[in-house]
Amino acid sequence: MSLQHLRGYYRQSFRLCLIYAGSTGLSVFPLSAQADEYGALPDAPRAAPVSLDATYYLTLVVNGQTDNQVVPVVYRNNAYFVESGVLAKNHVRTDGQQQGLVNISALPGVKATYNAAVQQMVIQVPDDWLPKQDVSSDNLIGYTPAKSSTGLLLNYDAYYTDPHDGTRLVATLLEQRLFSSVGILTNTGTFRESLGSSGNDNGNVQNGYLRYDTFWRYNDEQRLVSYQVGDFVSNSLTWSNSARMAGLRISRNFSVRPDLVTYPLLQYSGTAAVPTTVDLFLNGYKASSNNLNSGPFTLTNVPYINGAGEATVVTTDALGRQISTSVPFYVSNTLLRKGLSDFDLSLGAVRKNYGITSGDYSDAAFSGIYRYGISNFLTLSSHGEATQGLGLGGLGADVAVGHWGTFSVSASQSRASRAPVDSGEIDTDNNNANTNLNVNGVPNNNGMISPSPNSNGDTHEKSGNQYTVGYSYYSNRFSLSALRSSRSPGFQDLSSYTSDTRLSRQADQVTFSTSPFGPSNGTVGIGYYDVEAYDRSHTRLLNLSYSRSLWGQSSMFLSLNKTLGDSGYSAQLQFIVPLDSGASVTAGLQRDSAGNYQEQLSASKTAPTDGGLGWNLAYTGGRDPYQQADATWKTRYATLEGGLYGETGKYTNWADLSGSVVFMANDFFLSDKINDAFIVVDTGNYAGVPVMYENQKQGNTDKNGHLLIPTVSSYYPAKVDIDTLPLPADVVATRVTDNISVRQGSGVVVEFKVKKVLSANITLHNSQGQPLKIGTVVTEQNSQQTTVVGYGGLAYFSNLAPHNMLSIRQEDGAVCRIGFDLNVNSHSIEQVGPLVCRNAPVSGEINEQNP
């Protein structure tokens, strides 16, 4: 290579080096305009001087997360400085410095690296500096504020019976309900009328009207509180009794917010070093997937589960690396979440002889309960009752025992001014066969005994106590629950003090179920119940059961019941086989404790919920043969049932008619019986519009533009929409869908304004008969709509009147006005024209020139 060639090579190489140095942003310094000419090879290149003071504009990346904002970073004396406000915004703690430049390299626990290739300042901080991410489950359903329109509802259920040897009777259950945004006012009762006696019956039937309940109730969704005035049933704990009262009740009502979970769910906490995807698997099934930033996180967005199981958390970073962690868990729905409270305060009078008389109330009384979640593992509860001559108080606790179930305990004390009534004894016992305690908190009011009054009339003070202890555990493999309640002779509560009923002295119940060979091979259940009554008599029952699925949807059920201490046992074997037609056949064999067998055979089909025919046929053989046949006809407007049952030749005939009448939106509606909430869709007097509820067609609007949807769950956010596709082209709706939540026992009018509009495609020509130029502005003067002319001189307008006036600004600046009429009976887009803009008015056409 010649010397001249070498000079050109080094001159070009030097220029490229300068270009590269400037583009990296590492240093900025003046350069000479031209390089020197070399007569020989130059000296070896030397390193460029390092800049000790420079400003870069970079994005900050903190623990792998960036907001993509470019900020100034000062490089000074081998250190990087950033404004304190910028660092605080990116979760970098500035060691107490509130303003000015902060040396991030000098912060304790912080590591900063400059990445010149991507122009980023990469900062690593301790994980606990980053904000905690709480992936919560409170929005599994979503909250939609509930609404209520104003209206009236009448529910009726008329039942007619004609026994073989008895009185023909008509009994009609009636409910009147007035609802609005301020609550619901409800009254229920039965009207009974005997139609004459037959056979040996004396016709002693209580005729007339019997009132059941009358009350006003309002639910406050924001505070989760329900207010009720009138008749009600007070709430109870698993170790207390409910009381039927009348007065004022203020209580917590979690049902108004189905999106809230009241019990503590599974919580998993961890730390993500970099942005991560977290997948949650419960018992092998994927439950959720979430994207998380770097930093600590708590995962609680799990479905509503109960019992024991195993959770597997899988984290996946941007490079696809996965870490799997499995942890056992136990969720108990008997507990309250930490900080959550539940209460029921009832003040009034205890109601007696309910269902016998319309109004029989005792002295003023009080009943109250309160529960509070101390932690996610401990819930405390309390209960108090008081009336004239009676005071009661008690405390209880529910404790989660790690992953091994829930332990419950309670203690109550009562003091009464009179001893409990007893048959043939004086204050020695205080119980009946009312086993009012169970793990589900549902009173079991069976075997209530009304002893004869105490003839000596003693009215001295008597105290007593009650203790309960229980344990429960639920898992996929087996479930176990046990409960013992024990009472001293003098213990009383409102239910026993204001009536002749007695509380059991002691009650034990243990239930166990398992699938030893897997769920597909059936479930075995064992139950033991021991009740010691007020006279120290014992009722001990042992129950064994086995159920499993067979082929298809068919199933089998076997149960054996043994009363310990008595001879014999009872048993039942049953097979259920669904058919493709929607019907099902049931065949079984039953044995009573005396050793008598009965074969059973039945076939039935449930009436479709949207209307249709249902029926039921049943036969029982053995010593007491029994037959039954009935049919059900369900429509949108009512349900009609009827049939017969009884022994051969001694049948009882019966019939039933039930339904509802609603007045709302200035219209009356007939419907099948409405037990909860409902919706009336209003399409603005336009008939025949298809209505969908939760993507299921409910029908078409009537001549008034209304449709009643009677089967709505209160407080559930449901989707209601209309289908405008089958409607004519000249029919439009301002909106076609809505998410609505309805208050309990109320109805809501959902409006979808559907109306017929006049639309037209108008062809416009100029005075030479040619289509107007594309883009010419056209205005309809009545509606003030403006559009532009398209290809072929076409202009489209909707929402027109029978007579319309167009104002057209032409290319030469002249304004032409043209009037035209539309046919109001047309059901399509009319084709109008061609209309011509002329220099002089012709046949109703008006032309106006600009001045």
UniProtKB/TrEMBL annotation:
Residues 1-35 form the signal peptide. GO terms for cellular component: cell outer membrane. This is Fimbrial assembly protein. Residues 762-823 form the PapC-like C-terminal domain. GO terms for molecular function: fimbrial usher porin activity. Residues 416-435 are annotated as: Disordered. One of its GO terms (biological process) is pilus assembly. It comes from the Bacteria. It comes from Rahnella sikkimica. Keywords: Signal.
